[in-house]
Design a protein that fits this description.
It contains seven helices and 22 strands. By secondary structure, it is α/β, with parallel strands linked by helices.
């Protein structure tokens, strides 16, 4: 929870890696608010994949899949009056509604009916550099949550009910709080559709699991390795664990598996190990992301990484999967990050990317894996220099949190708490709260 008591930090910062089911240019038409004398005259139409994107203080994107080609919104459920035409974007429809009031609840109807539904609503962001009326901003973090997409050849789930159980646990926790409030934003930390980020796997692991949440709360995603499909993988180091793999005595046995892509081009996306599909990453079709600074921040020129402003919070989503594979792309992302953070003056700065720069998690080690090393060496110095408050990541399938760190860009053996961590009153490394 980000509240009015926060003071921007410019010293050591906190890195968190979370495995949690809890915790291209976009072409759109824009419309402005009309008078209350106008009333939408269409018909509310059932659609699939209803999704909110890019909420600002005066605009929002509503996205869906289906026949409807318009949306109507209004502050009164029974009297919707702001009508917008949508356009096709890939396999979805997209409508951007502008001219809205800050920190305001709006209802909407897909198909531009004159009345809305009680569970079809959104809140615009607070005015720039301010808090919402309730006094705080809540973020829900979902990392490595795509297990419902893992279905065998017979259609049987490999992780039956797990995602829903954790979601239900999240809501139980909320109900136990004195002031029960749902999230203002949902941040996806990558690997939200296992095993290879296909459109169907996104349906099973995301749209089917969180239908109510994504039609009422803005989604802010980042790219994980499983979003980029399948890639070549040497199975021999895991031969004993897998009960023996024929051929390993003669050399590497390379097989295609989900999450192993080393490509830097999203058009290299391979859904089944047979080579590039030619259609690009489903992730970039499903989400409409602000490459031109539409939601605040410096334009990135790509949907692979971007930033948004939400009240007093600046959120940066970086690409630790594709852009890091190419030195020129990594340099470009690092330069953009520096430019973006220089321009940012909000009280809180939050950065998300998938591969944690510091991790000794369940199945990944940041001392050994290239992406974690590249992010730590190239990106962390910029994060330290420009006062980022907290970094969230995923990937390692365990919950980890760092001390407040500054200036540590080597492996774990080079870490010295007296040099690289903020110390508490007892002289011990301080944890963030």
């Amino acid at each position: 929870m980000l509240d009015r008591n926060h003071i921007a930090r410019t010293g050591p910062m906190l890195f968190l890696k979370i495995l949690s089911l809890m915790f291209a240019l976009q072409l759109t038409f824009s419309v402005s608010a009309q008078t209350m004398a106008d009333r939408c005259t269409g018909q509310d139409t059932p659609v699939e994949r209803l999704l909110l994107q890019q909420a600002t203080a005066d605009s929002i994107i509503i996205k869906w899949r289906g026949e409807a080609d318009s949306v109507c919104v209004g502050t009164r459920l029974e009297l919707l009056h702001i009508d917008s035409t949508a356009v096709a974007e890939g396999n979805h429809k997209v409508a951007r509604i502008e001219g809205l009031e800050a920190d305001t609840k709006y209802y909407y109807s897909i198909g531009s009916g004159p009345t809305g539904k009680a569970n079809h609503y959104f809140h615009t962001a607070p005015a720039p550099n301010s808090l919402p009326e309730d006094g705080n901003i809540r973020l829900w973090l979902l990392g490595d949550s795509g297990t419902a997409g893992e279905i065998d050849d017979e259609g049987v789930s490999e992780h039956p009910g797990e995602a829903l159980m954790v979601k239900e646990g999240y809501y139980r926790f909320l109900r136990q709080q004195e002031n029960y409030e749902t999230a203002d934003l949902v941040l996806l930390l990558g690997d939200n559709a296992y095993p290879s980020g296909t459109d169907q796997q996104w349906q099973h692991s995301f749209f089917n699991i969180y239908p109510e949440e994504i039609q009422t709360t803005t989604i802010v995603p980042t790219i994980g390795n499983h979003e980029m499909g399948m890639g070549p993988f040497d199975a021999c180091p895991f031969s004993e664990l897998l009960g023996g793999i024929p051929g390993c005595d003669a050399g590497p046995v390379v097989i295609p598996i989900g999450g192993a892509s080393m490509a830097s081009d999203p058009m290299s996306y391979d859904s089944n190990g047979g080579g590039p599909d030619g259609t690009g990453m489903p992730y970039l079709d499903i989400f409409t992301l602000p490459s031109r600074g539409e939601a605040g921040g410096v334009p990135s020129g790509t949907e692979q990484y971007y930033s948004i402003d939400y009240g007093i919070v600046h959120i940066v989503s970086l690409d630790s999967q594709l852009s890091v594979q190419d030195p020129d792309q990594l340099d470009a992302m690092a330069q953009w990050l520096q430019d973006d953070l220089i321009e940012n003056s909000l009280a809180w700065t939050v950065v998300i990317f998938h591969h944690p720069p510091y991790s000794k998690g369940h199945n990944h080690d940041s001392d050994l894996e290239d992406r974690e090393i590249w992010m730590r060496e190239k990106i962390n110095p910029i994060i330290d220099e420009y006062g980022v408050d907290v970094v969230y990541g995923g990937h390692a399938h365990s919950y980890e949190r760092s001390w407040y760190l500054n200036g540590h860009y080597g492996n774990s053996e080079s870490f010295d708490s007296t040099q690289h961590a903020e110390l508490d009153a007892s002289g011990n490394p301080a944890y963030g709260q």
